[in-house]
Amino acid sequence: MTFVFSYNSPVGKWLGFVAAVWVQAISGNNYTFSNYSDALKSLMALTQLQLNNLSVAKDVGKAFGILAGLASDRLSTPVILFIGGVEGFIGYGVQWLVVSGTIKPLPYWVMCIFLCMGGNSTTWMNTAVLVTCIRNFRKNRGPVTGILKGYVGLSTAIFTDICSALFSSDPATFLLILAVVPFSVCLAAIVFLREIPPSSTSAEEKEEVKYFGVINIIAVIIAVYLLVFDISGTHGKVFSQIFAAILLVLIASPLFIPIHLMVKNFIRENSENFDVEGNTNVAEPLLCVEETVTEEVEKKETVVVEENKVPVAVEKRQPVIGEDHTIFEAIRTLDFWILFVSFLCGVGTGLTVMNNLGQMGLALGYVDVSIFVSLTSIWGFFGRIISGSVSEYFIKKAAVPRPIWNAASQILMAVGYICLAMAMPGSLYIGSIVVGICYGVRLAISVPAASELFGLKYYGLIYNVLILNLPLGSFLFSGLLAGLLYDAQATTTADGGNTCVGAHCYRLVFIVMAIACIIGFGLDILLSIRTRSLYGKIYASRKANKTSTTILS
Prior knowledge:
Blueprint: H1 10-25, H2 37-44, H3 48-60, H4 65-71, H5 77-99, H6 108-136, H7 141-167, H8 171-192, H9 202-231, H10 237-252, H11 256-271, E1 302-304, E2 311-313, H12 327-330, H13 334-363, H14 370-398, H15 403-422, H16 427-454, H17 459-466, H18 469-489, E3 491-492, E4 498-499, H19 507-530, H20 532-552
Helix pairs in contact: 1-6, 1-7, 1-8, 1-11, 3-6, 3-18, 4-17, 5-6, 5-8, 6-7, 6-17, 7-8, 7-9, 7-10, 7-14, 7-16, 9-10, 9-14, 13-14, 13-16, 13-18, 13-19, 14-16, 14-20, 15-16, 15-19
């Protein structure tokens, strides 16, 4: 028996989503800098400020994500994925050549370019995956974003633990994996991931929710599995190999969904008793505009007056929140800048911790900091996947504005920074977990919130403008704040670098970042108040649709 699938069929749709999950599971390489930063610092005899500026260069790559955003409306998903895969292969491949000793250390500015390329590669992958999947599953944006961003969070732990299990955390081997694996996965995803019409019936939407639940369960199992491996101490070679094999099986297991649908369709076609239900081959444009809460207002340059058929020029009006915005229309709204600055306060400070975990751990006397990198990644996953589903649930049940969850994460993150500043025993463990959770919430909530506020038509570009906060926050909080304050406390080493040991090394950094999070909390509360009416309309619209579906059935 043969199984043939169409890209527009449920099988093709879910094969695409599984491929997207795999891409996200390997696209968190931008958060792994702490795993090899110490090797770069020693090899190139860098000060902490110079090392932090290397991490900024990595994050600056995301500023060029605007190119991916512009390309998302002009190039196909496979082309965007291919560009991201090739760029990452070159960026991380050159870093591997340097750290492995294959070539001599390159000039500092050249290394900045290749780190920038590695960072930019993920913007192409993320844009291809997020824009395509949110359009394919537009009625379940929260769960889609939570799952995809959750796997990004897990990817750091996946890379770290596999490298630790099989290669004893060797930084050169780690960089080789970062170069080869994402490129290979992108090539595989090119075959399956396409933009197709979204679900058109209530039955299809319910089926989507059911399958998202299955993928959520698999993701939680993977996260717990990684967490148990991290906290269970050292392991033997055979045990580590078995761990890696089981992990790869778990990552592949979402394939169960399209295989199940394939078998189901085959049985249905051969029974001749089933009514073919849920057919998505609808004559519908691929880039259909999102059904906004309010009626779509047609923007016409002229109207025809019925009496004399004379065209009369009408000025194009600024769209309201909830309608499709171009990027220029979006940046003219106060709501965009409230979201932008609050996002900066959350992700900028979170990135600072992730980029400096290596030096933070060494300052507090820890020799191996990979456990903190994994903890941040795993708990970031829980923050992403839970917040996506929970925020969607409360929109449907009580019209709770999505930004309110950002506010909750900001205040919790401020508490985490205060805990880190106090440098009590175990505070780095607590801080890694809290920062991971809150950083994950911030990403999983802001992505669908932006699509609800400014529409899906130009979402690829709006998303990439919004994540300019990543390089900007990295520069302000990591490159300047953390780098300068650390160097002020550090002592010069014999090779020309510097080092700092003690709780005082980062205390002032944590205090300033806690204040920034409190400011972000206030902005998120303001945005929640300003968008109450929008989410009230979303709630009323979904309730009305549900009622009409019940009456028809």
